[in-house]
C-alpha cells in the first residue's frame, strides 16, 4: 500500500507568526525567554507535547492564538524574544569574527552518530550525544564555522518503562518529521538525495536540515519509498539492529554524509570524526580527492590525513567499534577497489596488530587522522597507552593522541532561576547566548551574589526536583497498578530540608550504580541519622541487551519500594533523559560519581550539577581528576591500584560512606542559630562554581579544538592542496619507506659514562647512515631523560642535532648543550623523518634508535 500524507500547519495571526520561526530553530532550547514564551501559550500542553514546540504549535487551538495575538503582555514578550533572536543571528562581533586567524576559509564538518540538542529532537542516547549537541550549540554561540552531520532515526531514543518489579522494559516512540524542527534539503525545488553503494545494493538517502542558531545540523535518512524495506530500516533505530545493520548505518553516516555535503555544494576544509562510528568518511574523501585532483591513493591520503580530526571517547574496549572482517568486506570491498588498494591493504588500516582478528573503527580513524584526542587529560594518557600498538617503538608519552577536555554548553544546563541571578550579578544583564562562559572574570564575581539569594534559588530548584519526582512516581505507580495508598505515599517522598545526593548514569557496569548499596547497615545509619539525614535520587537506563545492568536497576528499585529503612528516602526516577537530567542537576545538593578509575573518559553530568551549585562527590576520574586537589568538593580515594574489583569496591564504598558521614553532612547541616542554610556550605557552593564554570564548558572546549586542531588542519590542507604538494609529500614518504631499513646511527660521543662538571658544555657527536635519503628528509634528535624501568627512556627534552659534514658514506651530526641538573643524565639518539608540509611525522611511524 502506498500512503500519502500532507501536513496541516497552524495558521498564526501575523503579529505572533514569529512563534513558528522560533519553533523551527533549536536556538530556543538554550534561551529561557523563548521557552517561557511557549509555556505562556499553554503550560499543560507544553509539557504533554514533550517541550517540542513544533508539535506543540500544531496542538494549540486556533482560538488560543487569536487570544494571544490580542494579549499585550504576550506580544510584548514575543517581540523581545524576536529582537534577541535577530540580534543573535546578525551579530557582527562574535567571538569567531573577532578572533579568527586561519588562512583561507575554515569550515569544519562534525560527524556524530547521535546529537542531544533538545527533547524535541530525540536522536540521542547518552553522554556522546549530549556532548555533540553541546558542541554544536557552542559553535553557534561562538559563530564558529562548524556544521553537524548525523542520521535521522525513526526511533532515536529508548524510553525506559519499569514494571512492578522494577524490571526495565523499553519503548521506542516514533519520530515524526512533521513534528520536528527539520526541513528537507532541496536544490532547484527538488529534494536532494544521494546514492550510497552498499555491498551489492545501492541505497538512497535524503537530507534533513535542522537549524541550530547560527549553524546547521544535516541528518541523513534512508526511510524513502524508493528503498527496500531492509534499506529503509537502516536509519530505523539509534544503535538498533544487529552488527550488520550497524555497519550499514555507519556506511550511510560516513560515506553518505560526505556525499550529502558534496550534493549540497558544501565544501568543508576540516572533518571532525566524533567517535569511530563515522570513520568510513575518510574513504569517501580519499575517493573524491583521487578523482577530483587525479591523484593516487597515497597522494590523496596525505590530504585527508592532514585535515582530519578524531576524538575517541572511551577506554572501554567494547565501546570501540569492532567488526568482523568478512562483514567489512561485504560492504567496503567496493570502496577499496575505488581507491585502488588491495583488500589486505584496506583491512590492515583497521587492524590494531597484524594478527588482530577484528577490524576496529577507532584504529582506522587513528591511522588516517593527523589530529587525535581523548576527552580529559587522564583519558588522553589512558588512550596513549591503550593504542600504543599502533606506534611500536615510540615512547608511550609521545603517542600522538592528545587531550581536549569535554565541557557542557552552560546556557543549556543552568536553571532559569539561577540564570536570573547570574544575569543580575555576573552577566551584566546580558542574555546567555552573548555571554562567554569561558571568561574567568565573570565567575570571579560569584561572591557578589548574596548568600540568601543563592540559597533561595537553590531551594526553589530543589522543591521543583522533589515535585517532579513525586509526580513521576505517582504516575508510574498508578500505571503499574499499585493500590491507592501506595500512590498517595508517593506525594510524600523526599524532604526539601534534607541533604540530597543525586546519581544519574547509564547502568554500565563500570559506572557502579550499586556501590552505594554495598553495606546496607552503613547506608541505613547515614540515611536515618536523626540530626543529619541524607536522601538520594537515582536515575538511569541500562542498555536494552544488558541484563546485568537491568538487575542493578531492579535491585535499587526494590530497595526503594520495599525496604522500610529506605522507602521515601531513596528514590529511583524512571526514564532518565535530558529533562530528568535538568531537574536533577539543578536541584540536588551533591552529585555522586563513582566509576571505576579510569573508565569514565570524562563524564559531563557533574559539570552540569556544579554549574547549578551542587558539590561533587567523585572518584578521581575523567574531568574531576584534573580539577586537582581542592577544598570545594570531595574525592573518593586516590589514584591507587587494587588487587581485585571486590577490594576496590570495599575500600571505595567505605571511603564514600565516611565522606558523607564525617564531612559532607556536617558541612551541610552547620546552620547557626536557626539560619536556613549553612554558611560554610554556601561558600563551598560559590568556590565550586567559580572554579568549575569557566573551565568545564563547551565554549572553552570548542575554542581549544579551533586553536589546536581546526586551524592547523585547515592550514595544512591549504598547503597540501597546492599543485604538486600532495604528490611531493607522498613521494617523500615512499622514499622514506623504501630506504628506512638502511638508516642507522652509530659512534655516539660522549659515551654515557663520561663525567662532566656542572656548568660545562657537553658536545654530542654521531655518525648517521642514510642510504639514499638526504639530511633534508630526516631529523636526528638527542633525546634526554631518565632511564625507565622497561629499558626505555622517559623524555625530558629532545634537541635537534645539526648536520656538520660527511665522512665516507655517513653524515656527521653534532649539538652542544649544558645540563641543567647535576646527577645522572641519560640520553639516546634517534632518527625520524622530517617534512615541513605535514602536521606530524609520527603517523605512519618511522623511527630509528641507536641499535
Ligand atoms: C549529561 C547527560 C549524560 C552524560 O552524563 P555522564 O556524566 O557522562 O554520565 C547522559 N545522559 C543525559 C540525559 C545527560 O543529560
UniProtKB/TrEMBL annotation:
Among Pfam families, the record links this protein to: DUF3417, Phosphorylase
Catalyses which reaction(s):
[(1->4)-alpha-D-glucosyl](n) + phosphate = [(1->4)-alpha-D-glucosyl](n-1) + alpha-D-glucose 1-phosphate
The record's top EC class is transferase
Instruction: Please provide the record's keywords in A-Z order.
Output: Allosteric enzyme, Carbohydrate metabolism, Glycosyltransferase, Pyridoxal phosphate, Transferase
Which cofactors?
pyridoxal 5'-phosphate
- Identify the EC number(s): 2.4.1.1
Q: Which InterPro entries match?
A: Agluc_phsphrylas, Glyco_trans_35, Glycogen/Maltodextrin_Phosph, Glycogen_phosphorylase_DUF3417, Pyridoxal_P_attach_site
Q: Name one GO molecular function term.
A: glycogen phosphorylase activity
Residue numbers bearing the N6-(pyridoxal phosphate)lysine modification: 608
Biological process terms in GO annotation: carbohydrate metabolic process
Q: What PROSITE patterns does the record point to?
A: PHOSPHORYLASE (PS00102)
The DUF3417 domain extends over: 12-120
PANTHER family assigned: GLYCOGEN PHOSPHORYLASE
Function, as annotated, reads:
Phosphorylase is an important allosteric enzyme in carbohydrate metabolism. Enzymes from different sources differ in their regulatory mechanisms and in their natural substrates. However, all known phosphorylases share catalytic and structural properties.
The family this protein is said to belong to: Belongs to the glycogen phosphorylase family.
What is the name listed in the Swiss-Prot or TrEMBL entry for this protein?
glycogen phosphorylase
Q: Give the organism, scientific name.
A: Candidatus Avelusimicrobium gallicola
